[in-house]
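Fill in residues.
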């Protein structure tokens, strides 16, 4: 996941399944912190950030079933 020109990253589910959101809008996240988990039929995906970031927007409800490719949230990388 690479940031766009504004430094925003759209975190997507790479598998379809039930979403466990582990972040809140406005939250600061450290590198490696898990922000969401998607539990599919055959696999579980943990989604995190590579650099310190701030959660800008959450686009799905906790517990929602989503298809693969769904954008779950938008985070902005912080300048170090």
């Amino acid at each position: 996941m690479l940031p766009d020109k504004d430094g925003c990253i759209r975190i997507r589910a790479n598998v379809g399944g039930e979403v466990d959101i582990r972040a809140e809008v406005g939250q600061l996240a450290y590198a490696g912190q898990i922000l969401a988990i998607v539990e599919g039929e055959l696999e579980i995906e943990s989604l995190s950030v590579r650099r310190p970031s701030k959660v800008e927007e959450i686009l799905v409800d906790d517990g929602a079933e989503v298809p693969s490719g769904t954008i779950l949230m938008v985070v902005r990388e912080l300048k170090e």
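Strands lie at 8-12, 17-21, 28-29, 34-39, 44-48, 53-58, 65-66, 71-77.
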